[in-house]
Amino acid sequence: MSEEIIPDVIVETSDVAETHENFAEKTLAELVDCFQKLSEDVERMKKSKEVEAIKSAFYKKLGKEKAEAGEPEEGKPNPFDAVEEGFKSLYADYKKERAEFNKQQEEERLKNLSMKQAVIEDLKALVEKQEDVNATFPAFREIQNRWREIGSVPVQNFRDINDSYQYYVEKFYDMVKINHDLRDLDFKKNLEAKEEFCAMAEKLAENENVIEAFKELQKLHEQWKEFGPVAKEFRDQIWERFKAATAVVNKRYQAFFENQKEQFGANLAAKEKLCERVEEIAAKEVKSSNEWNALAKNIEDIQKEWKSIGYAAKKDNQKIYDRFRAACDKFFENKRVFYSQYKDNMNENLEKKEALIAAAEELKSSTEWKKATDQFINLQKQWKEIGAVPRKKSEQLWKRFRAACDEFFAERDKNAKPENDFYGNLKAKKKLVEDIIAYEISDDVEAVKTAAKEFQAKWQEIGFVPFKEKEGINKAFKDAMAKFSDFIEKPSRGAGRGFRQQQPQSEKDVLIRKYNALQQDIDTYENNIGFFAMSKNAESLIQQMQENIDKAKAELKELEQRIRSLETEPEE
User: Fold this and answer.
1) Comparing 45-49, 184-188, 566-570, which segment has the lowest mean pLDDT?
2) What whole-number distance in Å separates Cα of residue 409 and Cα of residue 407?
3) Its pTM surpasses 0.70
4) How far is CA 538 from the centre of its chain?
5) What CA–CA distance (Å, rounded) separates 430 from 265?
6) Which of 120, 331, 348, 415 has the fewest CB atoms inside 10 Å of its own CB, making it the most exposed?
């Protein structure tokens, strides 16, 4: 085969279009602005894919925002109508201009086809004349120049018209008896031109923009076909050189799209993982404001990570973005609903606490000490069970409620009757605590259990103590009775000290149990810290209670870390 019959260049195609801006993340106004700028670009007729990408993103965004906004109020215009009409007008102008451009291009290509067919007819006639070289060769040169000056033809006619031209060019060289010197000179000129094409093709292998290099290579192939043959001794050599340079550019072109495909796949996988993380967060049942804020921060971090990841393949990019956006929207909608309900709950709690304050202020002057004491204890229990109230009201409400409680208990203690010997009861309870501390645990489980029950029963038999001393003596009793915890809470475990020999607990169970006990202590401290009666010792007692709370919270935090570390350790 002659090197002039250039085979089609086989190139791996890709469904991946040249990377454009991610129009899916733009607003309607930004998309209209992008389209307006594009319509003013001198190269706009070559950017039809970008035009359609903007159009697709615009109508997807428009449909979504219409759905979110809902139907406009009766009698009011739809704010989206003007935006849509403006975009339609711009797009219609572009389509009209595009159609006219395509029409002109097609007419121009048809005209070129007709001109090239005429050139071939002239070349055919020249070959058939077989006149003297002095007459035919200048005419042949003129025909070649005319052919090169004519532009492109319709795609469906390109191969046939070029094959016909090449056929008569070769036939001219083979059949026309021209001067040997002129023939050699023509071969030399063709060789020089084709050597230059080879050098240009080899230079393209160094171009970092592989897409641009590939396009330039196609132009070189077209120009190669327009030149005649070279001397026989150079034909295979020059063609192999040009083919080798072509192969390098083609391989880089194919490798570029293979690498891009791999990168798109990696980007898609990374974005799918982010979608799963957000979907998992959005599906959580969240019950506290702090947790919502922490999760919102997580979502924001994930969104930043999303932006740092490149595009996926065109067929996947919009789908994965829609999935990610839907998961984020679901989370923030759930958060909005929570805070709406949370606000309603706080207002309900505010009304409940105001009702308790009113009841406490009405009850504080009562002299029915026993009955009123029970009622105050019940009010305090209800107060503890009510949830949060608006922060700006919380302190004010608490001070009013505590003041009513303090006033009643201070008056009660001053008017204690002999049958209500609060200080005598305090003394009795202190003595009982000393007895509990002095008691030594023996190996006789039943005896220990009996002793524990007796200590509890005696404690219940002793009456009230002064209110300001209640928390301290209760804490002392609780600490002293801690030695009986295993015997009281789990009496069915059998004999032995502590029962851990028969049913050993894991380290995690022990820590969780201690964690729960500490949490109960903190709740008790915080609930009762404000109920000390105003006295000369009140400040020191409150300070002591606060120190206990701080110490317990610190220990609680340490226990939490230890439990979590055990949860992350692999099972054996």
Assistant:
1) 566-570
2) 6
3) no
4) 53
5) 74
6) 415
